[in-house]
Amino acid sequence: MATQKKQNNNGWFKRHPLHVAVSFVLASHLLPAYGQEVDTAQDQAEQQVEERSGQIEQITVTATKQATNMQKVPLSVNALTNETLENLNIQGFEDYINFLPTVSYLSYSPGLAQIYMRGISSGGDGIHSGSQPSVAVYLDEQPITTINNVLDVHVYDVARIETLAGPQGTLYGASSQAGTMRIITNQPDNTYFDAGFDVQAKTIKDGGAGYTFEGFVNVPINDAAALRVVAWYDKEPGYIDNVYSERLFRASGIRINNADLVEEDFNEVNTEGLRALLKVDLNENWSVTPGITVQSSDSTGVWSHNPDKQGDLKTGSFNDEFTDDEWYQGSLTVNGKIGDLDVVYAGAVMDRDYYNETDYSAYAEYMEDLYAEYGYYCLYYDDMYNCVNPNQYISSDETFSKQSHEIRFSSPQDERFRWIAGVFYQKQEHDFDLRWVVPEYPTTEDYTPIVGEPVVWVTDQLRTDKDMAVFGEASYDITEKLTVNAGLRFYELENSLFGYYGNNGSSYCAAQPCLDYPNLDKKTDESGSTWKANASYEVTDDALVYVTYSKGFRPGGTNRALTGTVAPSYKQDFVYNHEFGWKTSWMDNRLRFNGAAYFMRWDDFQYAFLDYQVSPVTLITNVGQSETLGFEFDTAFAATPDLMLNFSGSYNDATLQEDYYQTIDDREAGIISAPKGTKMPLVPEWKLTGSARYHMEVAGLPAYMQLAASYTGASWNLLETDWRTEQDAYTLLNFSAGFEHEDGWNMEFFINNITDERAQVHIPWSFGIDNPEYTTTPRKMGIRFGWRY
């Protein structure tokens, strides 16, 4: 019998729908504001005038773990501010990732994506038992980097999204070898009452219709405490059609179709969530801020199409495909002072429950074609030695848990010599149960590793990663204009894999039930150090230049299988960064032009590959070296008090610096999988973003129009030259126009992807059978209404 969809015992959302919370927040403006300041609306109006004074907004970032003017930070930092996020109508990963010029990515579906910076990409990431990411992701002070996927955090009431390009191993540690992305939320404030909501209706060309409800409230409890609550519900419409398709399994001669699964616009996703932060000032020096964020997403279908085989925005799926993704993060931040020293403790726990079923029938077709070539009759047999329909799917039942703790001390930042130092601990566990299910396969112990279930392969493992570190940075002003900075981090790492993988064969299963006899128990321990050296010079009050030499690292790990041709474990890999950058403001702060040029060397980089002639499971090996030569820039220009222009971009030329041999045997035989000079995968040479926003008056009301564009250059999908495909460049163009009334309400009409571009976000290798293409959302039109207290 087929496995049943998982019933999640942690279904908090199912028992307590967040529609209630959303309704509370949306209605909050009707409540009396306890402790509010009577001139809040006036302050907001004055702020709007200031924002349109003809100067560029001053952006404060916390990239150095200190609140600093972005123009004074000698690092490559890019920030999407709260105003920019609202102007671009950004709600999730797909929205903001295209407007981060230093970030490239691949995405399979909501909550299933990887991100890259500065060409540090081998194309072999995202494997449960494989390498950790090369870019760390933070939600406020807490890392939320998961082992194989980026959390798709709904973006609302967010202060900014910061990207720190280049190795950040000193302050941020493991998996920050190429950069760090930080989502910074708005914090509680006990000095004023605030509230607001946004309602949106949207429709997709040749697709479905959806809607969004979002709201927030900031309530001062008394002079020493405040509560901020944010809630959201988003129904994202589908646009992929599952059309009638057939498969012929050549060896057995079995032919199947998907007539009972045909459906239009079947890739829908519903997301609901809640974030609550409570800030309490214990006294004039100490405060505590506990918080919790919870989010649930339920999706159906796939986000890929097969234009060559089924047609534009059409696919042929032969099994139900869906995902249930629930996660929460509990956090505690303590800020205080001991003498002149600032003290910060940041701790968090996170838990993610993820269940997914994915069609895997293309693999069955590939294997039956292969069997037919060699004269075999069937891929699978029943107990009467008859051919079994090999149609199959993969069920993924996963739990990811994480805890992190950091305490740091910093000296007064106005002193000539200043420093920051701390300790860090992190433990993450990934418990995953993956089952390859063939519904018509026999369920007796002679056939399956899980008696009673038609499973042909199972991976039931617990992965544990630990990271302990001490770190510090110090800065010294040699003169009023020249500052030097140095950082150092010492760390210890631990990676382990425990559990079972395989079928019911004697080489995997010692006895039935197979899962009671684990065949995997491996552990690796590593230690090391990473560092940074930086010098900055203030040419004028409006111009700063800097040079940086820094090192980033990513932990190693263990391979499941022992093959004799691939090492039993893979080592840490390291990035060495040489960078020259500048921060400049011109024309009385009407023009900002920041940038950096860099050369990066990636040593012994980790690469995951699957070759059935070597092993039935994915293996990771340290390949060699790659280099990236590139530059990035960020420009903002207040052309007039009513016209703001932004233009940013990056260029990366990332190439392999030595021949890649997949195994030891390949090296001895001279079989090269990727020769020296090969372009690294998933690295577009150019990525550009730009926007123009114009304010005006229409019928006596303040109004605006905005045009925003992003360009992503062509890239390769894989490293191996015999198998890879070039993914085309694409441009996305968005338009919006609306009104902003002085009473706090606003209304906007928007069109995203005006040209209905069919972007090739990722083309995975699919056994040479289906060749699906993952794409962005087609043209989307909608209207949004909002209100601010």
Give an account of the 3D structure.
The chain has 789 residues and is mainly beta. The protein is built from seven helices and 43 strands. It has a 22-stranded antiparallel beta barrel. The longest helix has 13 residues, at 361-373. The termini are far apart. Residues 1-51 have low confidence and may be disordered.
Relevant terms:
globular, 22-stranded antiparallel beta barrel, disordered N terminus, 5-stranded mixed β-sheet, mainly beta, 789 residues, 7% helix
What is the radius of gyration? 27 Å
Please describe the biggest sheet, giving its number of strands, its sense, and whether it closes into a barrel. 22 strands, antiparallel, barrel
List low-pLDDT spans.
1-51
Strand share of the residues?
over 45%
What count of helical segments does DSSP give?
7
Number of E strands? 43
Q: What is the general shape?
A: globular
Average of pLDDT: 90
What is the helix content? under 10%
Termini distance? 56 Å
**What would you call the structural class?**
mainly beta
